[in-house]
Design goal:
The chain is 29% helix and 27% strand. By secondary structure, it is of the alpha/beta class. The strands form three sheets. Strands 3, 4, 5, 6, 7, 14 and 15 form a seven-stranded mixed beta sheet that branches. The protein has a six-stranded parallel beta sheet with strand order 10-9-8-11-12-13, with helices on both faces. Strand 1 and strand 2 (16-21) form a beta hairpin. Bound molecules: NADP nicotinamide-adenine-dinucleotide phosphate (NAP).
């Protein structure tokens, strides 16, 4: 027997229940892990609420975790029992013991602790494709990150600074602004209080930002496009404030590169996943990016973590201790 958090029906956080489960032996191509930590991500709230389908019910949610491999299924040859491993974007992390497609696991270097690995795999690999692939950020770039004090936001901010960019970030409160500043954000805009488009245009001499990272959604998307320089890039990669109505796309400014990227897309091939993870581990080991675990909850208290995330009370990463 082991413990897991099950969702029997999509809905509010109270629908989670902490239960004993039996985990079968791993099947062909799978590994079994004893997890030490699970990450929490905004997308988890969409699977819980039913906005996205959680699949067959009851379901174990959560898409980020780290721990040790305890068993290997048939045909898994590049991992070993006893090895520390982590993953992002694979459902089922709110559990003590789980089976997982072994091709999605990444061995974790000794220098990176389990809680840090669980806090960064989904968010950090997302930051990787955003600053290193969607657009190769470097010296001379000025970028805008919406909700910069969030999980992905703080990693993106530090990584872009490390690559030489000037970072403008938006946040909803002075407390979040102070946190973003400590992580290198050059200009923080309180977007509930001021017009962020005007602020970005002022800061860039009317040009707009070279790249805009928007995972806030309907509330900011049109402004993000307006705050982007000609031939600049807009990555729209999430929407906690709500999806973009289709009619908006017909009235966007022209001559901007717009992409709606996803981690499953960028990491679909194992060689890409491993290369992206190497890049992430290297920047974390170098100190260029520090993973800020600002909230910790016990596995059984996952509902409290969802409430905190949805009510915008979190900053940086959140983990569940298992
Ligand atoms: N495409 C992908 O593959 C991918 C991968 C990872 C994450 N994402 C997306 O990236 C975003 C960030 O994820 P995260 O896990 O790091 O979350 P997060 O940024 O830690 O939390 C979301 C933040 O969004 C802001 N926000 C603005 N309006 C909101 C609203 N109506 N309700 C809730 N929050 C609101 C809040 O910051 P303020 O209080 O400062 O406004 C909040 O802290 C999410 O949209 C997620 O779905 C996408």
């Amino acid at each position: 027997m082991s413990q897991a958090v099950l969702l029997h029906e999509p809905g509010p956080p109270e629908n989670f229940s902490y239960e004993d489960i039996t985990v079968a032996d791993p099947g062909p191509g799978e590994a079994q892990m004893r997890q030490a930590f699970s990450g929490i991500n905004f997308i988890d709230t969409h699977f819980r609420s039913g906005l996205y389908s959680p699949g067959d019910l009851p379901a174990v949610l959560g898409r980020e975790g780290a721990g040790v491999i305890t068993k290997l299924g048939e045909g898994v040859t590049d991992l070993s029992v006893g090895q520390r491993a982590a993953y992002g974007s694979v459902m089922g992390s709110y559990a003590e013991i789980r089976n997982i497609d072994a091709s999605r696991l990444v061995p974790v270097p000794d220098e990176i602790a389990d809680d840090v690995a669980a806090a960064m795999m989904l968010k950090g690999l997302t930051a990787q494709f955003l600053v290193r692939q969607v657009r190769k950020i470097g010296k001379g770039d000025t970028i805008l990150i919406q909700a910069v004090a969030g999980g992905v936001g703080l990693i993106l901010c530090q990584w872009a600074k490390h690559l030489g960019a000037t970072v403008i970030g938006t946040v909803s409160s002075a407390e979040k602004a102070a946190i973003a500043k400590t992580k290198g954000c050059d200009h923080v805009i309180l977007y509930e209080d001021v017009d962020f488009v005007e602020a970005v245009l002022d800061l860039t001499g009317g040009r707009g930002a070279d790249a805009v990272y928007d995972a806030v959604g309907v509330k900011t998307f049109e402004g993000s496009m307006a705050a982007t320089a000609e031939f600049g890039t807009v990555a729209h990669y999430g929407a906690p404030s709500g999806p973009i109505p289709p009619e908006v796309f017909g009235k966007l400014p022209r001559d901007r590169f717009l992409i709606r990227p996803t981690l499953p897309g960028f990491s679909a091939k194992r060689e890409n996943l491993l290369a992206m993870a190497d890049d992430l581990f290297a920047v974390v080991k170098s100190g260029g990016v520090s993973i800020e675990i600002n909230q910790r909850f016990a596995l059984k208290d996952v509902a409290l973590a969802h409430v905190a995330l949805e009510s915008r009370r979190t900053t940086g990463s959140t983990v569940l201790e298992i």
